[in-house]
Amino acid sequence: MTLRTVSGNPFGAPSVLVALTGLILVGAPLAGAWFAGQPLGPYLALPPRPGRVAAAGFSWIAFWLMASLVIAAVAPFVWRFIATPRQAQQAARRAFPWWGHAALAFLALSWLLAWSRFAWLAPWQQHTFTPLWIGYIGVLNALIVRRRGDSLATRQPARFAALFALSALFWWFFEYLNRYVGNWRYVGIEDFGALDYTLFASAAYSTVLPAVASTAEWLGSFRRLDAAFERWHAVHVPRPKLAAALVLGLTTFSLAGIGSFPDYLYPLVWVSPALVIVSFQALGGRTTVLAPLARGDWRGPVAYSAAALACGFFWEMWNYGSLARWQYSIPRVDAFRIFEMPLLGYAGYLPFGIECAAIAALVLGRDRMLR
Questions:
Q1: φ/ψ bin of 185: left (φ > 0), alpha (ψ from -120 to 50), beta (otherwise)
Q2: What's the rounded Cα separation, in Å, for the pair 160 and 98?
Q3: Do the beta carbons of residue 258 and residue 180 sit within 8 Å?
Q4: Cβ count within 10 A of residue 258
Q5: Among 84, 124, 298, 318, which is least packed by CB within 10 angstroms?
Q6: How far are the Cα atoms of 8, 115, 164, 270 from residue 171, in angstroms, in the given order?
């Protein structure tokens, strides 16, 4: 499974892509707010702490409409996977690396500390998120090494380390977009000053991409995923540059309305970065993370979407018992919570996985992200 970019066109160079994507994600909502006559100060305040935004009340019509859309989108993939016969796979003969045992112990200890309220830990009780995910990332890479002999962290250590820095920047965009929709807010960190909050949040955000990429590689190591999705439905776009221009224009226009119509356009928070990046890459004639779909290879998108959903489960679970945590307010479908997240909110992790793949590819480049 290969997710890669190609060189030779500055329009799709990583730095240019990040700059152009940032311009659209920051500028379009801000322009929309200005056009609607809203004060821009609250959107530009630094750091972008999420606040409480009144969300529309629950609606059964909206709930079942969104549930139907999610089921229609996900069911073919689930059925394809279930209908694929289980594949014989040689058992791993490699020993679990010593540092994997250390990461597992560190993860267990971090979980204990996150959900406890020891008096001696009180000064550090708010800082348990990052250690949990450092442990998780270590354990996943150790599992991959046991199955395959190497992993992203051991095969490309410098680029894997760079994912942490890019991940922090990546998630700050979501925090900015959340200013317009107010779908989540943080509690337990009200005493943080601006600098403390920025450092604290950046450390936590830095673990997102490495966690999803590591989980995707681990899922991609199972032959059943290859058998189910390596040769499936091919997706052909007759005029890719025209399609990319239309998608980019529609996404930009929709983002401009996110502040005025947050109860309707909030899903854009989760899909717009991927749409913008892939559109710019297609306009520049570059290979995108969705290019394998043209030959019917769905392994990369499926692995990354499933990885984000798996990470999402652990994010929500570990968040539930922590002192510093987030709370949700989702318009019209805020019901049937699993931990803090409403049931249908988990669907947002699926496109978020594609987003993670598109961003991770900027750092991992031509090297294989999934093998």
A1: beta
A2: 20
A3: yes
A4: 23
A5: 124
A6: 28, 24, 11, 11
pLDDT at position 260, please? 86
Residue positions counted in the chain: 371
**What are the residue boundaries of the structural domains of the chain, listed by start?**
10-83+98-364
3-state secondary structure of 342: strand
SS3 for 157-219, per residue? HHHHHHHHHHHHHHHHHHHHHHHHHCCEEEECCCCCCHHHHHHHHHHHHCCHHHHHHHHHHHH
**pLDDT, tens only, 240-252:** 889 989 999 999 9
Enter the tokens of residue 266: 């909030």
Three-class SS of residue 81?
Answer: helix
Q: What's the pTM? A: 0.89
pLDDT band at 319 (very low <50, low <70, confident <90, very high): very high
CB of 208 closer than 8 Å to CB of 307: no
278: left (phi over 0), alpha (psi -120 to 50) or beta: alpha
Dihedral angle at the C-alpha atoms of 197, 169, 304, 132, nearest 10 degrees?
-30
The structure tokens 């305040």 sit at 45
Using one digit for the tens of pLDDT, what is the confidence trace for 46-65?
Answer: 777 766 556 678 899 999 99
Phi/psi region, residue 223 (left: phi>0; alpha: psi -120 to 50; beta: rest), is: alpha
3-state secondary structure of 289: coil
